[in-house]
Amino acid sequence: MKSKPILTGRNHLCGFEWWNKDPCGLCCVVLTWMLLFYGQFCVFTVMLVALEEYPIHQITNFIVFQFLWFMALISHLKTMLTNPGTVPKGTLDEHVKMLEFEKGEVFLKCTKCSCVRPERAHHCRICDSCIKRMDHHCPWVNNCVGEGNQKYFILFTMYISLVSFHSLYWTVWQFVLCVNDNWKGCSMFSPPATTIVIVFLLFEAILFAIFTCVMFGTQISSICSDQTGIESLKNEKGKGTDSWKNLQVVFGGPFSIKWFNPLVAPFITERAFEFSV
Question: Residue 161 domain-assigned?
Fold first, then answer.
């Protein structure tokens, strides 16, 4: 029997209206954007200076970098500005209590949201909502990672990892070029300033390549085992369904290029607000 959800608060919001005002999350988002745009700063002030000398190499790397960078930024925005799968508030009414009495069973409830809480949903105090299949709350995207936006979060970690590895290669190549040319004509800055810029970019690339690789692997593993991050902490086992089918559910259908496109919404978001009682 269907219970018609009552949309209150932020249950129905997506896009820029879906914006958490958590100070920690907002600081992490700004820091993420600063680090992303620092990569662009390095590309245009250091990497492309040797364009005339090595045109094919530099243009190829520029195109690869811009593609991965753009996909990482879009994935981050989609993760941050997409409803992760909130459960409608205000569904805990007399109708539900009557159903409990008639069926002789007790539904899962959240008194903070005053709602009937679906199985595997958890309450997030930062988002102030119950999130379907909530994995964790990530301050770097200032949002929960749940049923509605997990695809975007996985793509974010994947593209950040790829652009970090690419930056690592390109930065080492540029550093070797600068050393061989005695730091002449390899940057818009003086040798000491160029060294600082390159070293910081190297440190950023190594740090985020490792961090996002681990996060990406953790996410894929949790999907294949059908166990969210919260369930793993609570030592709750998943349903043990087929790993490939689990991936198809998260990414929105059979394997295709759409899996890797953050501009294509997974099918699951179209039914993110439906639940049965």
Answer: yes
Q: Is 95 a member of any domain?
A: no
Q: How many CA atoms lie within 13 A of 43 on its CB side?
A: 22
Does a structural domain hold residue 245?
A: yes
Average pLDDT over residues 165-191: 90
Q: Please give the positions annotated as active site.
A: 138
> Which of 68-77, 192-201, 232-241 is predicted most confidently?
68-77
Domain membership of residue 93 (yes or no) is no
DSSP state of 2: B
The distance from CA 180 to its chain's CA centroid, rounded to whole angstroms, is 40
Over residues 126-136, mean pLDDT = 92
Write the CB contacts of 109 (distance below 8 Å, at least 6 apart in sequence).
Answer: 92, 115, 116, 117
Range of the domain at 215: 23-85+139-271
85: helix, strand or coil: coil
**Total number of domains constituting the chain:** 1
**Residue 183, pLDDT above cutoff 70:** yes
pTM of the model: 0.87
**CB 205, CB 165: distance < 8 Å:** yes
